[in-house]
């Protein structure tokens, strides 16, 4: 018994997200930063939390839980922010909860933020999954559709309405329901046969292979700017011989008459070049380019673009300062090469997930640092943000360490024909707007991926992907665009429009399971077919096999560490033939084991990691490490200290 979504569970409560997003995109989304003119107050820690377990999930709205303290509406529990809520309690119903949950936290705002009349106070949520509505002191301030990307609201006007109180109560309702037009899509299925299922039984169906973790996944914070402020900065870089070119554009809000100073500062703190214009080209003599890890002895070189604004209105003067890290580099694609700074770049990297024990998709610095250390140990120079945008702090790490990123939208699991309808396309285009707006200035981001493995055989797929790719190129004409495919149908649908062909395949796993001997021939055919038809560079964007750590067998059988190793070995021998021709990269699926929906093909999650979910190596990790360091020696220019990376 399949039925469309019943009223309150879903997003019916969420009015016209598209209209709202359009307004939001008139403004920038610069990463919050402290400076001489800006303060940041993180609101991470314990929040009061209440899941709306009423059958319709609608009680919180009916009884206006946002109007009073959440604890006054009923029992609340402590939930950490950032974190998914699913795995932090012993309650199986909360782990698998679908619908609205309510978060609340009180914060004391410094009195001067309100009293000086010159300060803008912004409430920002870095990511909440999936649909969020935010109230401050019971007044709705914003709502946002989509996880993985930030949203904000100016709240100083509201705070000034009652300047006697500096306490503000922030309430955030978050709904993880996925329907046919969300990204990723999903559907709710009600089981009505009362001889089989209890009253009210329903499930959330999805077509993607990771657990639909929910909650406030990244920081919530308050930050200030002066009323006249730097709203956005866009930087595009190039170079000619030894001169770097930084094309920039600064957009300003809150003032018309301003003086501006833009200064490019090198790593040693020296001013390199400056200008007084809101847009222009800065010329950098003896430029130090931004290079990927293992391609240069000094990877990830960053300048800093300091933007200093002075403005005045009848009564006040304002100064705002924002410093944007800038890496000067170019990205180009030829018919068989991927060029960074005009040199061939070979992706030897990983696919990741934001996923770990207990936290789920919650941002966690120890995990981020461990993962970067593991990637560098492995000799990985790149990763793809499968299957959604990652925290911006992770991209900042990539900028600094020279790890190259393929930045992917949450367009995963688009398999139902109704998910190609206009409502879906419109939202997908908006998500690309938000993604490019947030990540456009990161030198580590070298390509956009608009989707993963859509049902390319469906008639509307061609139009849908043509629109998406064209739109993304308009948003950012400087980076190549791709979508990830596992299907030959995609050849006629998307491939004519992408710059790089990204292919996923699982020979001897999903096809011909157990038959390692088919890998080389099938992989060879795959590459020849794609290149033969399109003459575009190809990245093997996924390949791999599950291995339960500690399972062994020789001769190898599926799910053992030996089998995983041999799958890799056979893929690698074909990569080695083709990378001299037109294959420009290989990304293992997956960096680490990760949690999925329960199902008969998943034993406590997906085990294709070369590291366990706890980040310990399986045998395959050592195979890959040896290979990646060899590739780095052949294709890059290793810094001296990394020639002999680790004694083990
Ligand atoms: C894929 C998907 C990825 C899955 C993987 C697998 O093609 O893109 O999300 O986890 O295969 O292991 O099945």
UniProtKB/TrEMBL annotation:
<dbReference type="GO" id="GO:0030246">
    <property type="term" value="F:carbohydrate binding"/>
</dbReference>
<dbReference type="Pfam" id="PF02836">
    <property type="entry name" value="Glyco_hydro_2_C"/>
</dbReference>
<dbReference type="GO" id="GO:0004566">
    <property type="term" value="F:beta-glucuronidase activity"/>
</dbReference>
<dbReference type="InterPro" id="IPR006103">
    <property type="entry name" value="Glyco_hydro_2_cat"/>
</dbReference>
<comment type="similarity">
    <text>Belongs to the glycosyl hydrolase 2 family.</text>
</comment>
<keyword id="KW-0732">Signal</keyword>
<dbReference type="InterPro" id="IPR017853">
    <property type="entry name" value="GH"/>
</dbReference>
<comment type="subunit">
    <text>Homotetramer.</text>
</comment>
<dbReference type="InterPro" id="IPR013783">
    <property type="entry name" value="Ig-like_fold"/>
</dbReference>
<protein>
    <recommendedName>
        <fullName>Beta-glucuronidase</fullName>
        <ecNumber>3.2.1.31</ecNumber>
    </recommendedName>
</protein>
<dbReference type="GO" id="GO:0019391">
    <property type="term" value="P:glucuronoside catabolic process"/>
</dbReference>
<dbReference type="GO" id="GO:0005975">
    <property type="term" value="P:carbohydrate metabolic process"/>
</dbReference>
<dbReference type="InterPro" id="IPR008979">
    <property type="entry name" value="Galactose-bd-like_sf"/>
</dbReference>
<keyword id="KW-0325">Glycoprotein</keyword>
<dbReference type="InterPro" id="IPR006102">
    <property type="entry name" value="Ig-like_GH2"/>
</dbReference>
<keyword id="KW-0378">Hydrolase</keyword>
<dbReference type="InterPro" id="IPR023232">
    <property type="entry name" value="Glyco_hydro_2_AS"/>
</dbReference>
<comment type="function">
    <text>Plays an important role in the degradation of dermatan and keratan sulfates.</text>
</comment>
<dbReference type="Pfam" id="PF00703">
    <property type="entry name" value="Glyco_hydro_2"/>
</dbReference>
<dbReference type="InterPro" id="IPR006101">
    <property type="entry name" value="Glyco_hydro_2"/>
</dbReference>
<feature type="domain" description="Glycoside hydrolase family 2 immunoglobulin-like beta-sandwich">
    <location>
        <begin position="228"/>
        <end position="329"/>
    </location>
</feature>
<feature type="domain" description="Glycoside hydrolase family 2 catalytic">
    <location>
        <begin position="331"/>
        <end position="632"/>
    </location>
</feature>
<dbReference type="InterPro" id="IPR006104">
    <property type="entry name" value="Glyco_hydro_2_N"/>
</dbReference>
<keyword id="KW-0458">Lysosome</keyword>
<feature type="domain" description="Glycosyl hydrolases family 2 sugar binding">
    <location>
        <begin position="41"/>
        <end position="226"/>
    </location>
</feature>
<dbReference type="InterPro" id="IPR036156">
    <property type="entry name" value="Beta-gal/glucu_dom_sf"/>
</dbReference>
<dbReference type="GO" id="GO:0005615">
    <property type="term" value="C:extracellular space"/>
</dbReference>
<dbReference type="InterPro" id="IPR023230">
    <property type="entry name" value="Glyco_hydro_2_CS"/>
</dbReference>
<keyword id="KW-0326">Glycosidase</keyword>
<dbReference type="Pfam" id="PF02837">
    <property type="entry name" value="Glyco_hydro_2_N"/>
</dbReference>
<dbReference type="GO" id="GO:0005764">
    <property type="term" value="C:lysosome"/>
</dbReference>
């Amino acid at each position: 018994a399949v039925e469309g979504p019943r009223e309150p569970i879903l997003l019916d409560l969420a009015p016209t997200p598209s209209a709202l997003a359009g307004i939001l995109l008139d403004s920038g989304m610069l990463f919050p930063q402290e400076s001489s003119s800006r303060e940041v107050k993180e609101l991470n820690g314990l929040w009061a939390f209440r899941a709306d377990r009423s059958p319709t999930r609608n009680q919180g709205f009916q009884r206006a839980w946002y109007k009073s303290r959440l604890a006054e509406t009923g029992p609340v529990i402590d939930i950490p922010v950032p974190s998914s809520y699913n795995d932090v309690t012993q309650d199986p119903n909360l782990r698998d909860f679908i619908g609205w949950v309510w978060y609340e936290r009180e914060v004391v705002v410094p009195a001067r933020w309100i009293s000086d009349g010159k300060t803008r106070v912004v409430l920002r949520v870095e990511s909440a999954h999936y649909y969020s509505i935010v109230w401050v002191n019971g007044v709705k301030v914003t709502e946002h559709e989509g996880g993985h990307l930030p949203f904000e609201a100016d709240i100083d006007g509201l705070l000034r309405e009652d300047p006697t109180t500096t306490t503000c109560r922030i309430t955030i309702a978050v709904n993880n329901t996925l329907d046919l037009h969300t990204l990723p899509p999903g559907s709710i299925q009600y089981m009505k046969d009362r001889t089989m299922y209890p009253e009210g039984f329903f499930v959330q169906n999805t077509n993607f292979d990771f657990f639909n973790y929910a909650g406030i996944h990244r920081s919530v914070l308050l930050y200030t700017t002066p009323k006249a402020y730097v709203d956005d900065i866009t930087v595009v870089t190039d170079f000619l011989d030894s001169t770097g070119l930084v094309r920039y554009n600064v957009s300003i809000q809150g003032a018309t008459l301003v003086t501006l100073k833009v200064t490019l500062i090198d790593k040693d703190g020296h001013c390199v070049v400056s200008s007084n214009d809101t847009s222009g080209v800065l010329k950098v003599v003896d430029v130090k380019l931004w290079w990927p890890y293992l391609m240069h002895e000094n990877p990830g070189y960053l300048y800093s673009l300091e933007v200093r604004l002075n403005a005045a209105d009848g009564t006040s003067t304002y100064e705002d300062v924002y410093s944007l890290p800038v890496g000067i580099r170019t990205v180009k694609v030829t018919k068989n090469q991927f060029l960074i700074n005009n040199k061939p770049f070979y992706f030897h990297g990983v696919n990741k997930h934001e996923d770990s024990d207990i936290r789920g998709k919650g941002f966690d610095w120890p995990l981020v640092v461990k993962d970067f250390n593991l990637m560098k140990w492995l000799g990985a120079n790149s990763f793809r943000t499968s299957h959604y945008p990652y925290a911006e702090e992770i991209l900042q790490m990539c900028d600094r360490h020279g790890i190259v990123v393929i930045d992917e939208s949450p367009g995963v699991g688009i398999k139902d024909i109704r998910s190609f309808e206009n409502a879906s396309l419109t939202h997908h285009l908006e998500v690309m707007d938000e993604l490019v707006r947030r990540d456009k200035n990161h030198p580590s981001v070298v390509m956009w991926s608009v989707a993963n493995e859509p049902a390319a055989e469906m008639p509307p797929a061609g139009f849908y992907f043509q629109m998406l790719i064209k739109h993304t190129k308009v948003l950012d004409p400087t980076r190549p665009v791709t979508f990830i495919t596992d299907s030959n149908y995609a050849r006629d649908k998307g491939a004519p429009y992408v710059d790089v062909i990204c292919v996923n395949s699982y020979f001897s796993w999903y096809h011909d399971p157990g038959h390692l001997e088919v890998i080389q021939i099938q992989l060879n055919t795959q590459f020849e077919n794609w290149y033969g038809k399109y003459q575009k560079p190809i990245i093997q964007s996924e390949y791999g096999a599950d291995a339960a750590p500690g399972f062994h067998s020789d001769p190898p059988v599926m799910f053992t560490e030996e089998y995983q190793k041999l799958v890799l070995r056979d893929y690698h021998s074909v990569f080695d033939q083709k990378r001299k021709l037109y294959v420009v990269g290989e990304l293992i699926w997956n960096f680490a084991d990760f949690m999925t929906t329960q199902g008969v093909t998943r034993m406590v999650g997906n085990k294709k990691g070369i590291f366990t979910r706890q980040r310990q190596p399986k045998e395959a990790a050592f195979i890959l490490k040896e290979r990646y360091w060899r590739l780095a020696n052949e294709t890059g220019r290793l810094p001296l200290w990394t020639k002999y990376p680790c004694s083990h």
